[in-house]
From TrEMBL:
<dbReference type="InterPro" id="IPR036388">
    <property type="entry name" value="WH-like_DNA-bd_sf"/>
</dbReference>
<dbReference type="InterPro" id="IPR016032">
    <property type="entry name" value="Sig_transdc_resp-reg_C-effctor"/>
</dbReference>
<keyword id="KW-0238">DNA-binding</keyword>
<dbReference type="GO" id="GO:0006355">
    <property type="term" value="P:regulation of DNA-templated transcription"/>
</dbReference>
<keyword id="KW-0804">Transcription</keyword>
<dbReference type="InterPro" id="IPR039420">
    <property type="entry name" value="WalR-like"/>
</dbReference>
<feature type="domain" description="HTH luxR-type">
    <location>
        <begin position="193"/>
        <end position="258"/>
    </location>
</feature>
<keyword id="KW-0805">Transcription regulation</keyword>
<dbReference type="Pfam" id="PF00196">
    <property type="entry name" value="GerE"/>
</dbReference>
<dbReference type="InterPro" id="IPR003018">
    <property type="entry name" value="GAF"/>
</dbReference>
<dbReference type="InterPro" id="IPR000792">
    <property type="entry name" value="Tscrpt_reg_LuxR_C"/>
</dbReference>
<dbReference type="GO" id="GO:0003677">
    <property type="term" value="F:DNA binding"/>
</dbReference>
<protein>
    <submittedName>
        <fullName>GAF domain-containing protein</fullName>
    </submittedName>
</protein>
<dbReference type="InterPro" id="IPR029016">
    <property type="entry name" value="GAF-like_dom_sf"/>
</dbReference>
<dbReference type="Pfam" id="PF01590">
    <property type="entry name" value="GAF"/>
</dbReference>
């Protein structure tokens, strides 16, 4: 059975709270071309729950229409959005919010939001964190779609061929229920498939995580309580282990291996 996609979105909300410190994170999934807000962390009211967001309306609808992040620092006075949903948004006390799309193979599957109830703006760092989390959600959704497609071919495919394809998907899947499911299916076709391994240390992963958020070496050092030279050393070591020569290449490769969200 396919893991529930809602669980994936709820896990994303925990990541948003942890990475940005915002008091409110929520998400919606697309149904019949409309966004249904159904996952919340930190909500005080039920006003936004199950709200249907139309493309082009409000912050989320703007994201749907443009397929691009969008945010406002003063929701009540914002001119870049329509105000169709003022009652539930302002009833929740939201003052600033930013939202990003979860796009799977060019198709928006949902939208992730971060929001605050004071006049502190949500800057580029918060947007970068949301984009990184949305990318992780999109990658796992794409893998789940591919798994479902491959399992539909069970009756027509040869065992060896199917096992090889599923093993390749497992190698790209992040640790968790989905990878476990893939490995169990592989075992039905002639033995277990090895999951990808990495020799990256915990500190190297910490540094790559800060790089993924767009931090400079100095900013990563301050956030991790390290010296900038130490951050550089960890970054050089991680790039060497991953066989790349640039910071962003290291982030992409670590995500491909499933060791970085």
């Amino acid at each position: 059975m396919r893991p529930a996609d809602g669980d994936l979105y709820r896990r994303a909300l925990r990541g948003i709270r942890q990475r940005t410190g915002v008091p409110l994170a929520f998400a919606g999934q697309l149904r019949d071309r409309r966004l249904v807000l159904s996952h919340f962390l930190g909500a005080r009211t039920n006003g936004l729950r199950d709200l249907l967001v139309e493309p082009g309306k409000g912050v989320g609808g703007t994201v749907l229409a443009r397929e691009h992040p969008h945010g406002v620092s003063d929701y009540r006075a914002a001119r870049s959005i329509t105000h169709d949903y003022d009652d539930p948004v302002l009833g929740e006390g939201i003052q600033a919010t930013v939202a990003v799309p979860v796009a799977v193979r060019g198709r928006v599957d949902g939208v992730l939001y971060a929001a605050v109830r004071d006049d502190l703006p949500l800057g580029d760092r918060a947007t970068g964190a949301l984009l990184a989390i949305a990318d992780g959600v999109a990658r796992e959704l794409a893998i789940r779609d591919e798994v479902d497609h491959r399992l539909e071919l069970l009756g027509a495919a040869t065992p060896d061929g199917l096992r090889a394809e599923l093993a390749a998907i497992a190698a790209d899947a992040p640790p968790g229920p989905l990878r476990d499911r893939l490995l169990r299916v592989c075992e039905r076709f002639g033995g277990p498939a090895a999951a990808p391994e990495t020799s990256l240390s915990a500190r190297e992963l910490d540094v790559l995580g800060e790089v993924a958020l767009g931090c400079t070496n100095a900013e990563a050092a301050a956030r991790l309580a390290l010296k900038p030279e130490t951050v550089k050393a960890y970054l050089r070591s991680a790039m060497a282990k991953l066989g790349v020569h640039r910071r962003q290449q290291a982030v992409l490769e670590a995500r491909r291996l499933g060791v970085l969200p």
